Amino acid sequence: MFPLGSVLLPSAGLPLHVFEPRYLELVRDALAGDGTFAVVLISRGSEVGGEDVRTNVGTLARIVESAELPDGRWAVMAVGVRRVRVTQWWPDDPYPIADVAYWPDPDPTADSEDGRVAMLARLRRSLALATEAGDAVAPATIELTSDPGLVGYQAAAVAPIGPLDRQRLLEAASPEERVTTLSRMLDEEIDVLEMRLGAPGRE
Length: 203
What we know:
This protein is α+β, with helices and mostly antiparallel strands. It has helices at 21-32, 113-132, 151-158, 163-170, 175-197, and strands at 2-4, 13-18, 36-45, 52-68, 74-90, 97-102.
């Protein structure tokens, strides 16, 4: 298990520069096996020593690129594969370890297209406003998958929202709930950005 201060979502990329000894060992163990480890959000505390509070829903990641640097650090690129739920935490020996179970979404419903289109319009508006405000975000022209089961994850990965909101979306019960919840979050973010910019509000 790799607890982080950010949320990895299925299909999203995760670049890591690993330097802490216990996580260097985790990377070596993962590479010696099937190249996978799981990522969970640290909801309170620090991933560097000391006590932390970890969420019990995360994402299985697979290492797709890795390189050991001359100073002993590892540069790793991983990709989120699927959502998992922690069923049991074990002592950190030598790094965080847990039993996990896959937590698949139910199949998307046939009438989810309207919600997807509306959410994407809000996403593009929020990204355009965030860019105008000088925030470092993805371009508003970003293209996302048409897969109704993945589009909510991909949109959440680039939306101008915080890690706790992304965690809430990761834990959504269905693709439709994820899209609907993200749309509400984006409406709130658009209002905040419009106030920052002095732009007219939504009708």
